[in-house]
Amino acid sequence: MKKSRTLSTTPQIVRLFRVDGKNKNKAQERELEEECPRAQPRERERERSRQRHSLPTVSEMNGLHALNSPLTKSRDVSPSPGLLAPIPNGVRRISGDVSSSPTRQSMTGPVPLPSPNMLSPSSPAGEKESPGWSSAIGHATTAGKSGRVIEKLMAENDKLKRELELQVLRVQELERNAQTYHPQIEALLEKVDSLSHASTMDSSLISRRDRRIEELKTDNASLKEDREIMQRKMRDIERQRDEAVDQSKREVLSLVESTKHATVHAEILETSHRQLSAEYRARREKWNHDLANLHEERERDAKRIARLDVVCDQMRQEAERTRRLQADLVAKWEGHELALRATEREADAESDRFRQKTHEMNQVVDQMRWLMGMHKVQEKKKADPPDSPRDSTQ
Predict the structure, then answer these.
(1) What is the rounded distance in angstroms from the CA atom of residue 286 to the CA atom of residue 65?
(2) pTM confidence score
(3) Burial class of residue 307, CB neighbours in 10 A (0-12, 13-18, 19+)
């Protein structure tokens, strides 16, 4: 009973799989039409013809075809009514009856399958039946152990063939899906190439920017060091100034009683102030004259700009010709840039020399101040009377 039920239901499973496969193909075609709603009929026909003339699949090159695939003629695997009818006792089925015996497809041709009703479901287990005919074993009884083994092997063989058909159909479906995904993969590869090119360009720009940042960092560090040095120098100068102020206060307290020296000193300061005021007055007149000249130049520049606005329209027409000179200008620009770098190096050297000279001048000025102070002290000692008790107390 169990064997007959299994054999009678397997064709229904195959039929269901065929319907599902057709539905899947229709669904995929519907999805393709939805993805390309604006495609023209000519382009669709071209795509279908390309798919028809595509390269053979792996199963075709191996020589294995699905029994129910479009490459071969479809066969009806549903059981015929004659095969399901019970066989009476003492009667055997005719082996030459093609309509009553099912066949199975093979590489060499159709092979008849064993009848699923060789054992009558209504007959008892212990009753003997007439032997049937099979192309594989000939006349053999199906009631014995060998018949059951043969039926089991044939059923397993059919099951394996159906599984093979399913696997072949799946392989064909996967190949069709791969063909549909091929243009998308090509587009993605092109996109990956463009992105890789963009990434290389970005990496070069980033490396160039990083180098520039490192240069700016080094410049900033050098500027910070220079600023710290200048701040230290400024603190030293302020300290020296405070010391000088304190010293001057002490000197003022010591020089209060010497009115003559103070008067002379005041006269000297007055004359120096007059000289400085005259010098500042001359500078102010010069600056006023320069400002007047600058105002005149600005007015002339405004008029010139008005004329240049008119000329600018004409120069736009000459832009095409100036583009041809771009290569020469670039070469000249590189030469000027090299000259500018050389000038900058010379300017740096000159600034270093100037800084050294300034330092030397500051040292000379300090020495001169010290000498002038010593000279004034000596003159004061010469001008003052000999040491008195009052001076000794001071």
Answers:
(1) 107
(2) 0.21
(3) exposed
